[in-house]
Design brief:
Elements lengths: L1 E6 L2 E3 L5 E9 L1 E12 L6 E6 L5 E3 L7 E6 L4 E6 L8 E11 L3 E5 L3 E5 L2
Parallel strand pairs: 2-11
Antiparallel strand pairs: 1-3, 3-8, 4-5, 4-9, 5-6, 7-8, 9-10, 9-11
Length: 119
């Protein structure tokens, strides 16, 4: 069985920073693309950032220059450094991993971590 466990959310003031982490564990053979998504109240889940196993990354336009995605392949862990946070960044943040386990290849999701940007 595979699990993705996130940490690092919380309450931060506008202009502040947070670092989110997501570790994949279990019967994992290989991890391909990892990513972060977010879902604000009343809105659809949207992509924030993606990173390939070789480190190539891509970002949603509104977070470019403020957020940085990275990963540690040895630990099957993905990070999201979020700087210059704005109230509109408030959402539940979910990590995802396209990975191959002993049984199948599919996308797995974390349980979500709340990020609230407010003064």
């Amino acid at each position: 069985q595979v699990q993705l466990v996130e940490s690092g959310g919380g309450l931060v003031q506008p202009g502040g920073s947070l670092r989110l982490s997501c570790a994949a564990s279990g019967a994992i053979l290989r991890v391909y693309i990892m990513g972060w998504y977010r879902q604000a109240p009343g809105k659809q889940r949207e992509l924030v950032a993606l990173i390939t196993a070789s480190g190539i990354s891509d970002y949603e336009d509104s977070v470019k220059g403020r957020f940085t995605i990275s990963r540690d392949n040895a630990k099957n862990t993905v990070y999201l450094q979020a700087n210059m946070l704005k109230p509109e960044d408030t959402a539940v943040y979910f990590c995802s991993a396209d990975l191959e386990s002993y049984y199948e290849r599919r996308t797995y999701w974390g349980q979500g971590t709340q990020v609230t940007v407010s003064s």
